[in-house]
Amino acid sequence: MLPRCAVRVCHVLVLVLCLSAAEDFDWTKNDRGSFYYGTFPAGFSWGAGSSAYQTEGAWDKDGKGLSIWDVFTHKKGKVQRNETGDSSCEGYYKIKDDISLMKELKLNHYRFSISWPRIIPTGIKSDHVNEKGIQYYDNLIDHLLESKITPIVTLYHWDLPQVLQEKYGGWQNISMVNHFNDFANLCFERFGNRVKYWITFNNPWSVAVEGYETGEHAPGLKLRGTGAYRAAHHMIKAHAKVWHTYDTQWRAKQKGLIGISLSGDWGEPVDIGNQKDIEAAERYVQFYLGWFATPVFHGDYPQVMKDFIGRKSGQQGLGTSRLPTFSSQEKSYIKGTCDFLGIGHFTTRYITQKNYPVGRSGSSYFTDRDLAELVDPRWPDPGSEWLYSVPWGFRRLLNFVKTQYGNPMIYVTENGVSEKMLCTELCDDWRIQYYKDYINEMLKAIKDGVNVRGYTAWSLLDKFEWDEGYSERFGLYYVDFRNKNKPRYPKASVQSTQLHMEMVTEIVVPTVCTLSILLSAIFLMFLLRRRN
Ligand code: NOJ
C-alpha cells in the first residue's frame, strides 16, 4: 500500500524519534482502550471480500483479454519472486467451493470485482463482448443469491484492459471515462437485475499513486508530481459519469445503490499541542481519503490540496497547478455522486510537519504534502511492512467521514491483517485479536453516530498480493499455492470464532457468565433450604 521507500523512511524516522525525543513523545496513545459491550444495529451486514485479479486465475482462459496486471507481472523484477496471478486461487473454477466457505462463515454479503478484460477483452465494448466471461459472473451471482449471500460488486479493482493502456495511456487519458462507462453500463444491463450494490472504483488512491507516480503497481509508470493527479482526475470523472448512468438509466428499474470504495489510513498528530502537527495530520488524511471523497461529496478537491500543490507548482515556475481543476459544470455534476461510501482501512500513522522545499527534492505527491509519517515501534505489526494494528485510528477515521461528508451511509469494504511468516499451524491468534479490536472500534463509532451499515473482512482467501506476490497472506482461509488444486484450509480465525460469531458473542459472554452465577446461587439457596 505504502511505497516501500516511504516505509523505509518511516522506519528511519521511528529510530530517530526513539533516539532523540523518546521522552517527549506521548506513548500513552498506545493503550488498547477498553472493550465496549454493545450490539450492532439490526440488519447490519457481515461479509468478506476478494478481487478478480487477486483470486480468479484463468488469466488467459475462455476468451479473456489481457489486463495491465497480466502484462506487468510477466515482466521480470516487478513482483516479489516474479510471481503472477496467472492461476492464483483458481477461483474461476471454484465458485461452489468458495461459496461453501462463505456459508461456513455465515456471511451476509460477499464483495468481489468484475474483471473488465474478462467480459470486454480489449476494453472497448464495440470491439467484442465475451459471453463466456459474462457466464462466469452470472454463475457466481446466481450461486451467491441461492445461498442468500448478497453480492457487492466492484467494477474496477485495478485490472485495466491492456489495450486501453497501450492505445491511450490508461488513466492518463480522458477517453477512459467513456470506455469505463460503457463497461459499467454493460454490467448494469447484464447483472443489475440481481446486483443491488455497485462500487465503481476500489481504492483509486493506489491506482493513481502506485500505478502512475511510484510505478510499484501496474502499469508501472513513474510520472512524479503529475501522473497521480491526472489519473485521479480522470477516475473521479469516470466515477461520476457511471453514477449518473446508473441514476438516470437503471435506478428506477433495478433499485440498487452505487458508491465508491476509498482507502484511508488515519493520521494522528505526533504532538496534539502543536498546531503545525495538527494541520499536517489533517493534510495527510485530506491528501489520502479527502482527495477523492471531497469531490464526490462536495464537488471539488480539498482546499488544502489546491493550496499546497498550487503554491509548489508556482515555486517550480509552472504557469498552472499540477493539480487539475474542475469546471463549475463538472463540480456540480460530480457533487453528490455517492449513494454509499466504501471504506477500506488497515492502519494508522503519526504525522508531523516537515517541509520539502521545491528545488531540492523535485516534485511528487509525497513531497507536496509537507509532512513526515511515523509509527510507534510498540504497535503490533504481524504482517505487511506497512500494516500496524492501531484499532483506535479506525474509530477516528469513521468519525472524520461522518463530520466531513454529512454522515453518509458507510460500508467497510476492506479491513484485515496479513501474516509475515508461514502460518503452517494456522494459528492466527493475532488476526483474531486484530479483528476483535477493529470491530469493537467500529462498534464505538456506530455508538458515536457514524452510519456504518456493513463490514467486509479482507480477505476471504489468501491471494495474490500485488507487488508482494504471495508473500503476504490476508485470508481467513489458508490457500496452498504450491498444490495445483489450490486447496483451502480454515485458519484459527475461522475455526475458533467463526468471524460472525465473534462479532456477537462479546455481549453474550458476560450474559452467560451472569446467568451461570445466578443459577449457581439459586441452586445453592435450594440446597441450603433443604438442609434447614
Ligand atoms: C487494498 C487493496 O484494495 C487490496 O486489493 C489489497 O489486498 C489490500 N489493500 C491489502 O494490501
TrEMBL record:
Catalytic residues (UniProt): 414 (nucleophile)
Signal peptide (from-to): 1-22
Assigned keywords, A-Z: Glycosidase, Hydrolase, Membrane, Signal, Transmembrane, Transmembrane helix
Single Gene Ontology BP annotation: carbohydrate catabolic process
Catalysed reactions, semicolon-separated: beta-D-galactosyl-(1<->1)-sphing-4-enine + H2O = sphing-4-enine + D-galactose; a beta-D-glucosyl-(1<->1')-N-acylsphing-4-enine + H2O = an N-acylsphing-4-enine + D-glucose; Hydrolysis of terminal, non-reducing beta-D-glucosyl residues with release of beta-D-glucose; beta-D-galactosyl-(1<->1')-N-octadecanoylsphing-4-enine + H2O = N-octadecanoylsphing-4-enine + D-galactose
Hydrolase keyword on record: yes
SUPFAM superfamilies assigned: (Trans)glycosidases
Family: Belongs to the glycosyl hydrolase 1 family. Klotho subfamily.
Name of protein: Cytosolic beta-glucosidase
Source species: Myripristis murdjan
